[in-house]
Amino acid sequence: MPASDRLRRNRYRGDLHLAWLPRVDAMSSAGRVIAHATRTVSGSAGGASHGVQTISIPPYGFASAVAEWKNFNPATVTAGSQPE
Question: Which of 37, 59, 66, 74 could form a disulfide with 24 if both were Cys (CB 3.0 to 4.6 A apart)?
C-alpha cells in the first residue's frame, strides 16, 4: 500500500498546537476532485495506537503526518464518494 508524508511547518513565534487528520483527495488529470479519502487513525501502515493526539510544534519547527492509499478505478467512483 503506497504512503506519503505530509509536512507542516510552524511559521509563528509561538507554539502551534494541532489535533487533525490530513485531508487527501483523488484528483483527475484536469485537477478536479474525483473522490475523497476516508480519514482513519489506523490503517495498513499502522496508524495511531491512541487516537488523534494533540501535538505541539515549536516556533519554526516541523510536524508530519502519513497518508496511505489504495488505487481504484475512477470510472466506478463518482465525485464526493469514497472508494472502497
Answer: 37
